[in-house]
Amino acid sequence: MSRWLTLGIVSALLVACAGPSGGYPPAPVAAATPSYNYIVGPGDTLNIIVWRNPELSMSVPVRPDGKISTPLVDELVAQGKTTSEIARDVEQALSKLVREPVVTVIVTNFVGPYSEQIRVVGEAAKPQALPYKHKMTVLDVMIAVGGLTDFADGNAASITRAAEGGKRYSVRLKDLIKRGDTAANVEMKPGDILTIPQGWF
Question: Is residue 201 part of a domain?
Fold first, then answer.
């Protein structure tokens, strides 16, 4: 037996003994925050409705710099705010020209701020960044990215949780997707990074 073959076998055994995701603790099943409010980000589309002023009501995109512009409201920061906060800001801006404006803001195209997007890297069929949605689970994420590649070690996948200072958790994607083990399904948090490594063959 050659030296390199022996080293390869020893390395594989060490990985197997370490357990899924290098020994990280399992991700908690529940992670969503009950009081979560959607935060607007660049790329979102906002429907701004000004009561009794249809000429001031319109749909506007949030620019890459996080701002929006309307005919009477110029350079208003929308990124990082809730729709209620944006509505109050628009009301304040319009109050100089419109008597007691009443504004409602509705998000019609969701992207969210970069800091809250879910990123999937590694052996997913379509690695990408996804907008976070309240109560989103790892199964929802895997459906969105088209599942695992043939080379993925799904049970060695991990979640890096930005909301907890970069703490890492193991997730059993192979058991969830290939074997239908719903006990392996866990909730995501804003800013999570799902890493799917390549398996040993």
Answer: no
